[in-house]
Design goal:
Order of helices and strands: HHHHEHHHEHEHHHHEHEHEEEHEHEHHHH
Organism: Tenacibaculum platacis
Shape: globular
Strand content: 5-15%
Largest sheet: 2 strands, antiparallel
Distance between the termini: 44 Å
Keywords: Cell outer membrane, Membrane, Signal
Family: Belongs to the SusD family.
Strand order of the largest sheet: 1-5
Pfam family, one: SusD_RagB
Protein name: Starch-binding outer membrane protein, SusD/RagB family
């Protein structure tokens, strides 16, 4: 059992942050509250751990629960050209064909989940006065998680409310006033700079210095601050930091906590800290008709460019040979691929969700050196690029790297890990790529589909304060 989960299980009886109808005002699940609970550093740490529990989400089918990162693939991978539903049914199909409505429950769940993570982070930051010598470390950890949540939300929704402290239920102005993305990014950068300064390396399931540097580098790439991103990435790449590519691509996902992992959300099979998203991707063992199935476009890219990564990225559905499933997070094992199951019940799977890993760092390093250009021949960029390709068995040296080649490499290396949509947007290729994909498949993509709708439920609660994104 993972160390983080041990702590979560140990403090669950005193955890007082439950998911309620209003994500800004969680209701205590016991007589404890933040007003009378925090008296020692140990009690503050329970709140720190509880932030990760919020990201982890609740393994359930209840629409009253926040499912955290378990629903992220709908909003990212299934809005790219990588995945789709198996049967084009229900709310899930809205993501693949770009017909998302303002009442989509999956969008609402993710929005509420990650504002709840922000709330949990703000609770920690409001109680640092009793944290003693651990205050700086707890502050850094809470600001990392808050920045992580805001970075996901701002990329998905654009202008959003900025809540950087505990607010009262009466403060509708703060809760529902959307601020410019530039203001959100200002907070994200500030929070991550604090995290970089205040964290140490060590954990892969809690915030670390390397995780903060890597996430801040990705933020800087998004903001076209390339030289700052390069400096941070080269810090993580220093051999003394201990990160390296796994020799076998399969081990990245099925030898959990390995040297390639920088930050992951831990799950434990057959417990309350399990996940169900990977079962949903397989139809035969999930509760749905199958989601996050591999598109023909992604399959062709992997066949052409994946090298030895391909067999551990997707597989043919045995029961329906015309369909293809994601392998990286397969919960019930595959004897042909040497993959063991992570639980006795696939809907209570133990596969970790990897947020940041070292190959992402290497490919971002290429992007930072390219600095928005169309190509690079930099020896440092070529070296980072070649490391990733060598591991895939593609050992022929490259003399230059184009933007398209970098996008292609990121696609096959990080397939189905929720990077593709953000990569396309960040590198300015989303509209052209997704328009072509949409036209080829009879979908209805337009440029306004690059942002999700603000959930109608939140707009209703705001009494007119919370505006809507164009196109919805």
């Amino acid at each position: 059992m993972k160390t983080l989960t041990k702590i979560i299980l140990a403090v669950i009886t005193v955890s007082f942050f439950s998911c309620s109808d209003d994500f800004l005002e969680p209701v205590p699940s016991s007589v404890l509250s933040d007003a009378n609970y925090f008296n020692t550093p140990e009690e503050v740490e329970t709140a720190v751990i509880n932030i990760y529990d919020g990201i982890q989400g609740v393994n359930s089918t209840s629409t009253n629960d926040n499912h955290g990162i378990m629903y992220e693939f709908y909003l990212t991978e299934m809005r790219s050209d990588n995945t789709r539903t198996k049967a084009s049914e229900g709310e899930a199909a809205q993501f693949e064909n770009y017909s998302i409505t303002t009442n989509n429950g999956i969008v609402q769940d993710y929005y509420a989940s990650f504002y709840n993570v922000i709330y949990r982070s703000n609770i920690v930051l409001a109680n640092l006065d009793v944290a003693g010598s651990s205050a700086a470390a707890f502050e850094a950890e809470a600001k990392f998680t808050r920045a992580y949540a805001y970075f996901n939300l701002v990329r998905l929704f654009g202008d959003i409310p900025l809540i950087d402290k505990i607010i009262s239920p009466e403060d509708k102005e703060t809760a529902y006033t959307r601020v410019p993305t530039s203001d959100i990014y200002e907070l994200i950068v500030s929070d991550l700079q604090t995290a970089v300064s205040g964290l140490q390396d060590g954990s892969k399931y809690r915030a670390s210095k390397a995780a903060a540097e890597t996430l801040l580098a990705k933020v800087y790439l998004t903001l076209n601050r390339y030289s700052e991103a390069q400096t941070l990435l080269e810090s993580v790449m220093n051999p003394g930091r201990g990160f390296a590519l796994e020799a076998n691509f399969k081990d990245v996902f099925f030898n959990e906590g390995n040297n390639e992992i920088i930050f992951a959300i831990g799950y434990v099979g057959d417990t309350t800290d399990s996940q169900n998203f990977s079962a949903e991707w397989l139809n035969a063992v999930g509760r749905t008709s199958g989601v996050n199935y591999v598109t023909e476009e992604a399959r062709l890219a992997l066949d052409a460019l994946g090298g030895n990564r391909t067999m551990y990225s997707y597989r043919q559905d045995i029961t329906q040979p015309s369909q293809y499933q994601v392998v990286k997070y397969i919960p019930d094992g595959d004897t042909n691929l040497g993959i063991n199951p992570t639980s006795t019940d696939p809907t209570k799977a133990g596969n970790d969700w990897i947020v940041l890993r070292y190959s992402d760092v290497l490919l971002m390093h290429v992007e930072a050196i390219m600095a928005g250009g169309l190509s690079t021949t930099s020896s440092n960029a070529l070296s980072s690029f070649q490391l990733v390709r060598d591991r895939a068995g593609l050992t022929t040296p490259v003399a230059s790297i184009s933007r398209q080649e970098l996008l292609d490499e990121r696609r096959v290396e990080l397939a189905f890990e929720n990077h593709r949509l953000f990569d396309l947007i960040r590198m300015g290729e989303a509209e052209s790529t997704l328009s072509a994909f949409s036209n080829a498949n009879g979908y209805s993509f337009t440029s306004t589909d690059l942002l999700l709708p603000i959930p109608q439920r939140e707009r209703n609660l705001s009494n007119g304060l919370l505006g809507q994104n164009p196109g919805y």
